[in-house]
Each structure stands twice: as structure tokens, then as C-alpha cells.
TrEMBL record:
Topology with respect to the bilayer: Single-pass membrane protein; Single-pass type II membrane protein
Single annotated GO MF: transmembrane transporter activity
PANTHER family: BIOPOLYMER TRANSPORT PROTEIN EXBD2 (PTHR30558:SF13), EXBD MEMBRANE COMPONENT OF PMF-DRIVEN MACROMOLECULE IMPORT SYSTEM (PTHR30558)
Coiled-coil stretches noted in the UniProt entry, renumbered to this chain: none
The keyword Membrane is annotated on this UniProt entry: yes
Species this protein is from: Idiomarina tyrosinivorans
Protein name: Biopolymer transporter ExbD
Lineage: Bacteria, Pseudomonadati, Pseudomonadota, Gammaproteobacteria, Alteromonadales
The keyword Transmembrane helix is annotated on this UniProt entry: yes
Gene3D superfamilies cross-referenced by the UniProt entry: 3.30.420.270
Length: 135
């Protein structure tokens, strides 16, 4: 009986408890997921016009791109001009602190730019900017 008891004590001493290490790993994983900032892209490359007074904007959460053929892109999808307001409303509801940045190509029409700006304001977003290149 004593021998059996001694074997049990020996087995307990050699076993390593992994629970605390797994807890730390899961806490670190949650920390990195919560603190990660994900970069959103509009979906197309745009040749932005130059501007001498360009200012860096930090928190641009809703990116709208207008191509040289006046196609409107949001979240890597081409959007009809009539659906821009609904898409901006949805994205703004997800992040009410966000702002809209319009990346209009040099060759796009001013009319398309104004329609997108009006759609953003109609969606309740009044912090609307136009992206440019610094000279």
C-alpha cells in the first residue's frame, strides 16, 4: 500500500499543469484582437489631384472611391450612385465617430463628387473630406 501511495505522489510531481499558460495565451489573443486596427480600403487605385494645403486625416473610417470612369466604390465593391447613401448610413451606424473620405480620381466628374458628398450628408455624416496628394 505504501509503495502504491509513493507511486501516486511521484506521478503528481511529474505532471505539468498547462491551464495557467493557456489562460495567458487566450488573454493575449483577446488583447491583440481588441487593440488591432484594421485598414479599410475603397477597392480601387485612384490618381488623386495635388493640393498645397493637404492635411493628414487620422480617423477616416468610411472610404469612398470615384474612378476616372465615375464608378463609385465602397469596401472593394462597385456601388450604384443611388445606393451610396444607404451604404454610408450602414457604415456610419457601425462606427458613429467615423468620417467620410472621398478619393476622387483626377479625371472623374465634379458632378459625381458632389452627388457622393450630398449622399454622405444626407446619411447624417457631416465630416466629409476629399483626399488629395501633397505637392
Amino acid at each position: 500500500m505504501k509503495q502504491h501511495f509513493a507511486n501516486l505522489i511521484e506521478e503528481e510531481e511529474t505532471a505539468i499543469d498547462m491551464t495557467p499558460m493557456l489562460d495567458v495565451v487566450f488573454i493575449m489573443l483577446i488583447f491583440f484582437i481588441v487593440t488591432a486596427s484594421f485598414v479599410k480600403e475603397s477597392g480601387i487605385d485612384v490618381n488623386r489631384p495635388d493640393a498645397a494645403t493637404a492635411v493628414q486625416k487620422d480617423r477616416a473610417n468610411i472610404l469612398v472611391a470615384i474612378s476616372s470612369e465615375n464608378e463609385v466604390w465602397i469596401n472593394k465593391r462597385e456601388i450604384d450612385i443611388r445606393a451610396v447613401q444607404a451604404n454610408i448610413e450602414r457604415l456610419y451606424a457601425e462606427n458613429p465617430q467615423g468620417s467620410v473620405v472621398i478619393q476622387a480620381d483626377k479625371l472623374s466628374n465634379t458632378e459625381t463628387l458632389i452627388k457622393v458628398m450630398d449622399a454622405a450628408r444626407s446619411a447624417g455624416v457631416y465630416d466629409v473630406s476629399v483626399a488629395t496628394q501633397e505637392e
